[in-house]
Write a structure and sequence with these properties.
This protein is mainly beta. The protein is built from no helices and five strands. Strand 1 and strand 2 form a beta hairpin. The protein is elongated.
Length: 98
């Protein structure tokens, strides 16, 4: 489930927040409470550089990582020491529209 709120603050600036829930029904390790969910709190800012070019900044604050054998972005190959119960991430995106 995702709940999104975004507001146009100025003609070229939009800010927003959203919360996303992901639940694993049957995790591989049921005693590991971080493996049965991913809760993602996000703050965003979108800047319209011009009518064709957009820049977006997102801050993600995640609790849990879902099941290690579920393809949700957390993979054992790149995390050989195991997963942490909390993850923070900054994402910068740009797009052009013709």
């Amino acid at each position: 489930m995702v709940r999104v709120r975004a507001y146009r603050v100025k003609p070229k600036l939009q800010v927003g927040v959203y919360h996303s829930n992901f639940h694993v029904d049957d995790p591989t390790v049921p005693t590991d409470t971080a493996s049965n969910h991913i809760y993602d709190e996000v703050g965003t800012a979108r800047i319209d550089i011009n009518r064709f070019w957009v820049l977006k900044v997102e801050g993600h604050f995640m609790d849990g990582y879902g099941d290690a054998y579920n393809a949700q972005g957390f993979y054992t190959r790149w995390n050989p020491n195991g997963f942490k119960p909390r993850t923070d991430m900054l994402v910068l995106r740009t797009s052009c529209n013709f």
